């Protein structure tokens, strides 16, 4: 998805929804099942926003942070994975063909190095039925990306 001066409202709207999504995650104190309800996609899907590209005219800022939107869309994808893991359980959860897993493999590992470790934990979970290591990695991702983003913003101001 391309955001430029002709459609920057879409990017600003995505930033607003991503900010609200992060606020809800912060309010809950971490990841849990059911949090995908916190981002209402008015324009596009999480898959679209993972590939957002902002093209600004020379010497003009549109105020759209493509890195934040991509990161938030990836966090949303993690929430989709969490929903599947908790709702289906290790016996029914399928790694192969799971859209969240495929997206995390293709895009997620490039945006967040921790995703590789998470995917290893998910693979192990389907074999040994323990969520412990998954929860540890999710906590690390939450602290670094969700809480960390807002802590850095507050300190910068």
In round numbers, the mean pLDDT is 88
What percentage of amino acids are in beta strands?
under 5%
Low-confidence stretches: none
Distance between the termini: 30 Å
Helical content (DSSP H or I, runs of 4+): 55-70%
User: Largest sheet, order of strands side by side?
Assistant: 1-2
Rounded Rg = 16 Å
Largest sheet: 2 strands, parallel
* Topology order in helix (H) and strand (E) letters: EHHEHHHH
Class by alpha and beta content:
mainly alpha
Strand tally is 2
Q: How many DSSP H or I helices? A: 6
Cα shape: globular
What can you see in these coordinates?
- This protein is an all-alpha fold and 157 residues long.
- The protein is built from six helices and two strands, in the order E-H-H-E-H-H-H-H.
- It has a two-stranded parallel sheet with strand order 1-2.
- The longest helix has 27 residues, at 66-92.
- The mean pLDDT is 88.
Summary, kept brief:
With about 160 residues, the protein is an all-alpha fold.
List the SSEs and their pairings.
Elements: E1 2-3, H1 8-28, H2 46-49, E2 53-54, H3 66-92, H4 99-111, H5 114-128, H6 132-156
Parallel strand pairs: 1-2
Helix pairs in contact: 1-3, 3-4, 3-5, 4-5, 5-6
Key terms for this structure?
mainly alpha, 157 residues
């Amino acid at each position: 998805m391309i955001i430029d001066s002709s459609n920057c409202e879409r990017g600003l709207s995505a930033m607003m929804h991503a900010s609200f999504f992060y606020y809800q995650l912060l309010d809950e104190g971490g990841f849990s099942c059911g949090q995908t309800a916190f981002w209402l996609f008015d324009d596009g899907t999480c898959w679209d926003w993972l590939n957002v590209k902002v093209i600004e005219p020379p010497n003009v800022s549109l105020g759209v942070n493509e890195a934040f939107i991509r990161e938030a869309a990836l966090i949303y994808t993690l929430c989709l994975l969490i929903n599947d893991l908790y709702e289906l359980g290790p016996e029914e959860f399928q790694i192969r063909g799971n859209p969240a897993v495929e997206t995390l493999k293709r895009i997620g590992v490039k945006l967040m190095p921790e995703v590789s470790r998470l995917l290893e934990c998910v693979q192990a979970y389907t074999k040994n039925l323990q969520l412990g290591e998954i929860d540890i990695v999710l906590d690390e991702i939450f602290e670094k990306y969700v809480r960390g983003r807002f802590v850095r913003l507050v300190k910068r101001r």
